[in-house]
């Protein structure tokens, strides 16, 4: 909300406007200043401005700011109201499509459900189209596909809810179960259970509510799980007349959903060997020549990581200094130096090495920089023999780098 306020105030302070525009900008700046940091007052100030200046040239900007503030504030009414206005101009805004559809479904009317269905279908189409695109940033192909699966499942869940509210129970069940197949989640199981119960298919409903309750889903809150448990018990008693046997049913649901999660992790690991890495030494780095380095193999050694990129000017300056430090420890096999490239476009690396006469023993970061929180380069990180980070140099001081890094390595060897 602070960023939105700063941007709007910056616009309100713009000069070179006609006289009437200057008056409007002064009013907007005054209203936003008076609103302070309160998201509620911020929204009220913008709404008052739109009423006072219904033909403002900044309407699109202000309505988008109202949506963002509403999302931040959990204001469902304004999400639905202004989100739809934004989507009229920008129909492909995925985050807003999802939030507006959810807000409309909470209104629980046939008209709002029909609009939510339209937005959810549009969201599914947009997310599905991402499957053929290249992963953004340093995300692996496997993680990218997981993200797309999750997005498609989310859109299907919204469609299921909309169809249910429109009285199309069979279609709601079909879509909810399709969502669970695309990406198993407590929400998908819960929605399937709801409409199966509405259709009188209690045994199937109980099965899905047990999955919603039992599965490990970080998106499910304690309140969600308590509600799932209550509904599960209610339906089971209605079906069986008692809760005897319910524990076994929940355990079976846990085993079932755990197996689904394990299967998905295994598929992800095929394309991303670090998908399930929980510690530094769990990582496997891919090399320039197709080789792989399992960092577990370096346990017991002092490891020096040099994070760099082809586009990084300071990295070129640091490189000969880094090489000098390597020569100082050439006769110490317990010290391992790893050159770790962070380029998003890996095809640029080999020509760079050849043109600059750098060695080819280079590994790609493969998610390690995220785990080590490398936010700038060059960065040099040292691990002790237990695999613990004992030193970090962000950037470097040219006339001191060799001695500083040498001393840090010696300290790690003594650790």
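-> sequence recovered:
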């Amino acid at each position: 909300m602070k960023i939105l306020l700063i941007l709007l105030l910056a616009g309100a302070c713009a000069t070179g406007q006609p006289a009437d525009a200057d008056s409007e900008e002064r009013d907007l700046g005054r209203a936003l200043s008076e609103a302070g940091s309160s998201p509620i007052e911020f929204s009220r100030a913008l709404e008052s401005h739109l009423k006072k200046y219904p033909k403002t040239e900044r309407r699109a900007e202000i309505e988008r700011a109202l949506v963002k503030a509403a999302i931040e504030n959990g204001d469902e009414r304004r999400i639905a109201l202004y989100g739809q206005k934004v989507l009229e101009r920008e129909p492909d805004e995925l985050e807003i499509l999802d939030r507006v559809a959810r807000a409309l479904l909470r209104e629980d009317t046939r008209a709002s459900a029909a609009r939510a269905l339209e937005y959810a279908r549009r969201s599914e189409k947009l997310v599905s189209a991402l499957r053929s695109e290249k992963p953004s940033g340093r995300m692996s192909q496997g993680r990218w596909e997981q993200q797309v699966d999750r997005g498609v499942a989310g859109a299907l869940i919204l469609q299921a809810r909309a169809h249910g509210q429109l009285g199309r129970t069979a279609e709601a069940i079909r879509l909810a179960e399709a969502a669970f197949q695309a990406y198993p989640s407590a929400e998908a199981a819960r929605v399937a259970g709801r409409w199966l119960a509405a259709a009188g298919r209690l045994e199937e409903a109980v099965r899905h509510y047990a999955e919603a309750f039992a599965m490990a889903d970080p998106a499910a809150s304690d309140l969600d799980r308590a509600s799932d448990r209550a509904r599960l018990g209610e339906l089971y008693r209605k079906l069986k007349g008692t809760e005897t046997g319910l524990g076994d049913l929940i355990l079976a649901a846990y085993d079932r959903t755990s197996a689904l999660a394990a299967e998905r992790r295994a598929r992800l690991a095929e394309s991303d060997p670090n998908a399930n890495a929980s510690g530094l030494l769990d990582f496997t780095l891919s090399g320039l020549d197709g080789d792989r380095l399992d960092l577990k193999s370096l346990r017991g050694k002092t490891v020096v990581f040099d994070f760099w990129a082809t586009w990084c000017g300071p990295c070129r300056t640091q490189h000969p200094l880094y090489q000098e430090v390597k020569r100082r420890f050439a006769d110490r096999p317990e010290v391992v130096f790893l050159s770790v490239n962070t380029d998003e476009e890996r095809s640029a690396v080999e020509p760079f090495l050849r043109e600059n006469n750098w060695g080819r023993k280079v590994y790609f970061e493969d998610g390690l920089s995220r785990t080590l929180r490398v936010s700038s380069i060059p960065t040099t990180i040292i691990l002790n023999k237990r695999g613990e980070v004992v030193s970090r140099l962000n950037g470097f001081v040219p006339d001191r780098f060799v001695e500083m890094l040498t001393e840090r390595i010696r300290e790690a060897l003594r650790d």
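Residues 184-272 form one domain.
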